[in-house]
Design a protein that fits this description.
Layout lengths: L1 H18 L7 H29 L11 H18 L8 H10 L11 H4 L10 E2 L15 E4 L7 E6 L4 E5 H7 L5
Antiparallel strand pairs: 1-2, 2-3, 3-4
Length: 182
């Protein structure tokens, strides 16, 4: 589409320039020809830049998501589905499991069963989910944190907010996100 526009602009430019013959043009025609020449040059530079950057990419390989991150995103999705039903926060794990069982195609590539979906593959423990009440919005993200890994790995654990944003936090940050499991 941009190439067609450039070709039309060039054809228009050539028509105007061919009418300009020495001694047979006034200042208006000279200004018009100069403006069209500049416009054509700008368009050519723009098209060249777009073509160069469209062909270049920083990485041709797709980014991989850790299984723990994918599961936490699914937990956040289930949590959000429950709250969207107008029932507030899920009160217990069985409510999230019931939602997961309704449509296994959403999570079947992430876990073998709904129970496995609610556990971290990194520390092999169930996720700590904010059951009962929706936590307050995070000052950092503006969305409430709804789940996290129980222990994580090397003092860091993944957390997820209501919109599905996953972050790896250290022990001090984790204590601010969700309470410790009892």
């Amino acid at each position: 589409m941009a190439l067609q526009r450039a070709q039309k602009l060039r054809a228009s430019f050539l028509r105007v320039e061919s009418r300009l013959r020495p001694g047979k043009f006034d200042d208006y025609e000279v200004l018009l020809a100069d403006a069209m020449r500049k416009r054509f040059q700008q368009t050519a530079v723009w098209l060249t830049t777009v073509a160069i950057f469209a062909g270049c990419s920083s990485s041709s390989q797709p980014t991989t998501v850790e299984p723990a991150q994918a599961r936490l995103r699914m937990v956040a999705s289930l949590y959000r589905q429950w709250t969207d039903l107008g029932r507030g926060a899920p009160a217990k794990q069985e409510q999230l499991l019931a939602l997961a069982r309704r449509d296994p195609t959403k999570w079947s590539d992430t876990a073998a069963s709904p129970e496995e979906l609610l556990a971290s593959p990194r520390d092999n423990q169930p996720f700590v989910v904010a059951y009962g009440t929706i936590p307050k919005d995070s000052a950092e993200t503006g969305f409430p944190w709804v789940a996290r890994e129980k222990t994580g790995v090397d003092g860091k654990a993944y957390t997820v907010d209501l919109r599905g944003r996953v972050q790896l936090l250290d022990a001090q940050e984790i204590s601010k996100v969700l309470p410790s499991p009892s």
